[in-house]
Protein 1
Amino acid sequence: MSEKKPKQSTQFVIIFTLVLMVTTLLITAGCLAPASKNTSATVPSTCSVDTGVCPVVLPGSVRIDASPQMYSPTMSSTIGIGLTPNVTGFNPADAEFEWNATYGYFSDWSAPDYTISRLSQPVVNHGEKIFWSFTEVPASPLVPVIITVIARDVQSQKVLAGSRMTLGWKGNLTVVVEKIE
């Protein structure tokens, strides 16, 4: 009986060692890796695997085009800084644009008669050029003017994109476009 115990004990060690070695080999070969690592990527249902075509949804963006880059009410060539939304990723004809400014006012100066009309804030239009101006020296010329525009879908009123422009003061009666985001 004493001979059986050492023999069984040796067989157990050999079997245990073999199982341990096979498990180690399977793990290092990747055969026992989690299923998520061994599966292929799924193709969205809107894609066509046969043609390799998937629709790409580009995020919309709007950027404020501003001209001139420096303005003072003493200038005779313009009534202010002309502002136009420059859009990508959506049809501007399907959008309305809401304009706001932390200081100053907006005006319209368009055809057919080119009369200047002061607009109340927020200004909502369909992408037509508007002008920003001011008439009085600000209380603090150190505080920049922030002009924002938000584009919304006309039907759903969902926000499509937005932009912000910073005007800095150069003296009391002149502003300069510093940053457009």
Protein 2
Amino acid sequence: MSDLPPAGVPPAGVPPASVRAQLRSTRAGGWLWKTLVFVAGLFFIALGLVLVVLPGPLTIPPMLLGLYIWSTEFAWADRWRARMLAQGRIAWQAAQRRPVHTAAVTVGGIVLLIAAVIAARRYDVVDRLLGSFG
């Protein structure tokens, strides 16, 4: 008998391969991993774009997170992330120079967003728009 562990079981003291390494070990798994990374990053980028309607630096953190997720697999995203970090630092410094103004504009934007959502629900704006296309 051999002292080797059964197939698929790592030897004692050796950590099992990460999910990422296991998925990337096959062509289909590598494609699946890149797709999952892309979708996860896209979610946070889309969230950042949705938050563009709110004034202030609220849009930057989710976009940076999305770019960070993408940069783990895509070199082009790593370059974009570096540029976004620089822009985020500039925006944060500007917000820190005028904290009362930044807070007032951000709270005002949130109040306007809530008012728009309430008005859209109350007057069935979405249903009317969808009905006009059908």
Protein 3
Amino acid sequence: MTARVAAVDADGIPDIIDEIMKIETSSFSVPWRAEDFTASAEYGTVAASLDGKGRLIGYGCLVVVADEAEITNLAVTAGERRQGVGGGILDFLIGTAAESSVRRLFLEVRESNANAIALYSSRGFETVGRRPGYYRLPKEDALIMMLEIGNSEC
């Protein structure tokens, strides 16, 4: 699968919000609201993955604060999972963080989401903590994963 990943600014979110929300509501038991994606584009990065026909097949959100960043959301449409789309989005977000002089990149993931954990681990993320009961519907712990990007030496 060949997909193109690009950043979408806040003005571009309305053009794809319906497709984002279809993926979001089918991927998460407690989905984000449409306005959460607009805010993410205003204060961070929203990356959109488009297939060869220009259809949205996945997205990811990144927020940078000083020398740390967090991937706050990443989802791929069900029909495109396990075909490299999520990895492409993740690589784009890691690259964006690195260009912003980020040293540590964090994310949270359901402890039962073995596929996502394997993807993140394949890019060097390591589990550094746990948030008990972080997720609801169903209630479940979140694993906190971190990727060291920058060199702490000047």
Protein 4
Amino acid sequence: MTFFYKNITGLTVCVVLLSLLLHSPIFSQQKNIITSVLVINSINVFEKSKLGNDVLIAFQDAAIELKKEADLNVKKFEDEELELTKKREIVTKKIFNDLAIDFDKRVQKTRNLYDLKDNQLRSNLESWKKKFIELSGRVIQPIMLKYGAFIVLDSSQIDLFFDNRIDITEQVIFELNDLYKNDPKYLEFIIGK
């Protein structure tokens, strides 16, 4: 009988110690830690949040419209080039060369215009991303207060080794989705429509 009680007591002590060990902060993935530094992956926040996705869709829509417009001009120039080649037989060499030079200048001017529009569209996306990050601060700051943090490092910008418990990426995505769901005007704020 003494053997039975010793084993139960030993087993109880082992279970209690194991339980304490497994529920200690070392093994816990709960977010109830206090830290002065948090980590976020801003690329994931932008790409996985509903607002970020809508910004990307607005960019893609604008890029598609720009491509359609450029394709129409390409077709127009192809047609004009065919007409120009037909004129080769009926106009003088000097007149044809003048027409060809004028045509080449207009083609180059149009190419430059679309390069400029493409660069402007890409600049818009970068501007929209900056506004998105500024808006993200509205949900990041309360999360920082919750953790007692003073710094948020972006793991997409630098190589970091960190404890996953201080990664707030998913929490920021959740909060941004909630913010955007409650007030869709944030897309207009970012893309300026």
